[in-house]
Amino acid sequence: MNRELSGRQLTVARGGWIVFALLLTTLHLAGQVAFFRQANASDLMPAQLQGLAEMGVSVPVYLFFNVVLLLFFPVFWGGMGLLILWRKSNERGALIVSAMMVGAGMAATIPVWEAFATAYPKWVWIVPLAAFVGNLCVNSFFFVFPNGRFVPRWAIGIVPLLSAYNILNGYAFALPPFGVELGERLAWLFPIFITLSLLGFLAPFYRYRRVSTAIEREQIKWVVFAIIVGITIFAATA
Asked: What is the pTM assigned to this prediction?
């Protein structure tokens, strides 16, 4: 059963959610602004410039469109997280899942974090920390939705490892030299990483068939449907 919160517990939980979301959102918006300022025509290949000219699309419009695309995942996942918070903020599992959705959306845009690291070199140490939190949200989400409990239970042990591996390979631009070197040495783990990530995508189906209540099955179906639609739209416009 999904535990309901009340009184001081509910106030603290909601406050923690707000602080978490505001911190990540503030950092991500700073990265978005930096990405927009850094984007220029020199980043485009000659073939891309020619293709834009043939379609009658100006470079500034194209660059602006890229910025909009990078907002897709944060807005999509964050919007679903806010919807869950609005409807079920008194439930422990709902708060956990909605916070994870917010973090997952922020972690899906590596170019934004790279722009942040370039624009604010003194704050580059924040990027791996924020990215690790975001990747924890991504890697945990499919194991905990919809009630906030890990299924299967052993997944709680592999999620931090998956998240750390993500940082070593996807955020080398923000890591010190020893971090980059470690990522290179652990490159042989990539097949294992892919296998464990695939288990995360299969976890909702296992939960649906073996663990979930009737209400939870409906929630899983709607979220899986929304994710498929969101990925399809993103792929079609990317």
From this structure: 0.72
